[in-house]
């Protein structure tokens, strides 16, 4: 059994799709959801989905308390689903090539510190891009710079608003993120 923990800061729609995807699996367990935002919608989703959820502080994140808790849960993979804090090097070293993130644009464009959620979609529209999409990538010590695992794209029309871009992207997120996680966690042998 592979244990996945999810880090989330927001509404939790991607966390919910991941939980639903693996519900009933005998090979993968969503062991815990960790959240750094006491106002986040993911907390209520976790309750409804019957997944343990814990809030943590910046101090617990930095002093190793959270890392020790993940190790006590025998965590195999960490999935960032709308998590906004930079991952410390201790986490990257403890889980090499086993922390993945979803970014709502086609990296390397529109990535980096401060580029999340609506800021990304506004930048895509302001730049006059004709396509956008999602990027799933490994996490390193820098925002959105880890090796790319998967990308999926959609056309951006001249009439599209940032909200339109966000909606198109979320369709891909919900469709592709759980499948990519499954392929990483449970690679098939030829």
Structural features, described:
The chain is α/β, with parallel strands linked by helices and 190 residues long. Helices cover 37% and strands 23% of the residues. It is built from seven helices and seven strands; from the N terminus they run E-H-E-H-E-H-H-E-H-E-H-E-E-H. It has helices at 13-22, 42-49, 58-62, 65-72, 89-94, 117-126, 162-185; strands at residues 2-8, 28-35, 53-55, 77-80, 99-103, 131-138, 148-155. The protein has a seven-stranded mixed beta sheet with strand order 3-2-1-4-5-6-7, with helices on one face. Helix 1 runs parallel beside helix 7 (162-185). The model has no long low-confidence stretch (mean pLDDT 95).
End-to-end separation in angstroms reads: 21 Å
Largest sheet entry:
7 strands, mixed
Low-confidence stretches: none
Order of helices and strands: EHEHEHHEHEHEEH
The backbone outline, from C-alpha atoms, is globular
The total strand number stands at 7
Kindly state the percentage of residues in helix: 25-40%
Biggest sheet: strands side by side, in what order? Answer: 3-2-1-4-5-6-7
Average pLDDT, rounded to a whole number, is: 95
**Helix/sheet category:** alpha/beta
Provide the gyration radius in Å: 16 Å
Strand content: 15-25%
Count of individual helical segments: 7
What order do the helices and strands come in, and which of them pair?
Blueprint: E1 2-8, H1 13-22, E2 28-35, H2 42-49, E3 53-55, H3 58-62, H4 65-72, E4 77-80, H5 89-94, E5 99-103, H6 117-126, E6 131-138, E7 148-155, H7 162-185
Helix pairs in contact: 1-2, 1-7, 6-7
């Amino acid at each position: 059994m592979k244990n996945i923990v999810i880090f989330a800061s927001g509404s939790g729609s991607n966390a919910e799709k991941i939980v639903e995807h693996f519900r009933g699996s005998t090979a993968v367990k969503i062991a815990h959801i960790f959240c750094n935002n006491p106002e986040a919608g993911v907390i209520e989703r976790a309750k409804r989905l019957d997944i343990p959820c814990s809030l943590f502080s910046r101090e617990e994140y930095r002093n190793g308390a959270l890392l020790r808790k993940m190790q006590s849960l025998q965590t195999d993979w960490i999935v960032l689903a709308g998590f906004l804090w930079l991952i410390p090097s201790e986490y990257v070293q403890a889980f090499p090539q086993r922390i993945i993130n979803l970014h709502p644009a086609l990296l390397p464009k529109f990535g980096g510190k401060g580029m999340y959620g609506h800021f990304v979609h506004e930048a895509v529209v302001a730049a006059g891009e004709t396509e956008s999409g999602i990027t799933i990538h490994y996490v390193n010590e820098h925002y959105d710079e880890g090796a790319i695992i998967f990308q999926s794209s959609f056309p951006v029309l001249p009439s599209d608003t940032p909200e339109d871009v966000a909606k198109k992207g979320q369709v891909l997120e919900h469709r592709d993120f759980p499948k990519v996680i499954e392929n990483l966690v449970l690679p098939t042998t030829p």
